[in-house]
Design goal:
The protein is α+β, with helices and mostly antiparallel strands and 143 residues long. It contains 3 helices and 6 strands; from the N terminus they run E-E-H-H-H-E-E-E-E.
């Protein structure tokens, strides 16, 4: 979809992605995001190790740019506020619902749009685990 066809109030859903143990372990090792494979509590680990909030945020962004906001071209992140509502665990299936809250044209970039988004990350079937409010710049949106 071309950026100039976006409308306020539009809602888009990303593809679904299963949290993979190998990728989660790599992230924890690479970015020092805490203990792996989760807490030493056997009952908690029975449901699968928890994924860190930062990894959940990075997966959310990957799902958004990978089709969760179907815009041709680049998305340039300007600001984000993130709240974590619950845990996501290895084996969970995640998806993101993105709502366009506001669209404006920045005066310094007349061929771009500034979007304010509400991005809710869910664990199937529909338990929200993260809420991100973001502002992004979408270049090349026509005049």
């Amino acid at each position: 979809m071309t950026p100039d066809r976006l409308v306020e109030g539009a809602i888009f859903c990303s593809r679904r992605e299963r949290l993979d143990a190998g990728e989660c372990a790599w992230f924890a090792e690479r970015f020092g995001s805490g203990e792996w494979p989760g807490t030493p509590d056997a009952a908690a680990n029975a449901a699968g190790p928890k994924v860190t909030g930062w990894q959940l945020a990075s997966i959310t962004m990957r799902l958004i740019v990978g089709g969760g906001l179907p815009v041709e071209g680049n998305l340039i992140g300007l600001e984000a506020a993130i709240e974590w509502d619950g845990a996501a665990r290895v084996g969970n299936i995640l998806w993101v619902r993105t709502e366009i809250l506001r669209i404006t044209r920045p005066p310094t970039y007349p061929n771009a749009q500034l979007l304010k988004l509400r991005c809710s990350t869910f664990v199937e079937p529909e338990r929200r685990v993260q809420l991100m409010t973001a502002r992004i710049l979408v270049p090349g949106a026509g005049s």
